[in-house]
Amino acid sequence: MDNWADRLLGEYKEGRNALHQMKANLHEDNFEDETQINCMIESMTFAMDWMETGRQPDTYNGIDKKSIYQRQFFESIDVIPDITDELYAIDSKQLYMTTEEKKDLAKIFATWSHKERVCYIAHEVQKKSFQQIADELKVSKGAVQSYIKRARSKVKELVS
Questions:
Q1: Is residue 60 classed as helix, strand or coil in its secondary structure?
Q2: Measured CA distances, 8 to 12, 23, 154 (Å)
Q3: What is the pTM of this model?
Q4: What separation in angstroms does the CA of 141 have from each of 30, 121, 132?
């Protein structure tokens, strides 16, 4: 027995077939109409895929496939701890980073995942143990060790 979604999907298929027919009957030099028809066919195909699968097309585990190519940028450098704070001063000396050093550090941060960054800073800067970090993030101690190990290897790779 067909339900409303099956009937709607059938109507979309008929409409898409009609668009394909219109596209085939276009004059060869009618690029604007062909572009519009292609956009409509693509939109209908997207909607049909969504109706057939019950999930948004072009996603993997709920994440848009295109986001894999997005990089994090740290233009403001606000995520880098302020090394002029007394907490991070070495032997009561004020530390200073040049703009170039900040850019290099931002490149390192950009290669890390969020968890790698959080774990690495918590362990190396805040001197927290693996177990403390694991408890805060609600992950296993082994996961924290893995995040830090990957972060360190990425630093070595970029520095060498």
A1: strand
A2: 6, 22, 51
A3: 0.45
A4: 63, 16, 9
pLDDT at 144: 93
Q: What is the Cα–Cα distance from 102 to 81, expressed in whole angstroms?
A: 11
- Please give, one letter per residue, the 3-state secondary structure of 57-97: CCEECCEEHHHHHCCCCCCCCCCCCCCCCHHHCECCECCCC
Which residues are CB-neighbours of 113 under 8 A, at least 6 positions away? Answer: 147, 150
**How far is residue 85's CA from residue 95's CA, in Å, rounded to a whole number?**
9
Contacts of 29 (CB under 8 A, 6+ apart): none
Query: Cα-Cα-Cα-Cα dihedral of 92, 98, 100, 101, to 10°?
Result: 0
CA dihedral 110, 112, 116, 120 (to 10 degrees): -70
Pick from 136, 135, 71: nearest CA to 108: 71
Are 81 and 125 spatial neighbours (Cβ–Cβ below 8 Å)?
A: yes
CA dihedral 148, 121, 158, 63 (to 10 degrees): 70
Q: Give residue for tokens 């980073």.
A: 97
Look at residue 21 in the predicted model and tell me its pLDDT.
Answer: 92
Q: Which of 112, 113, 102 is nearest to 78 (CA)?
A: 102
pLDDT tens figures, 101-137: 777 777 888 788 888 888 998 898 888 999 999 998 8
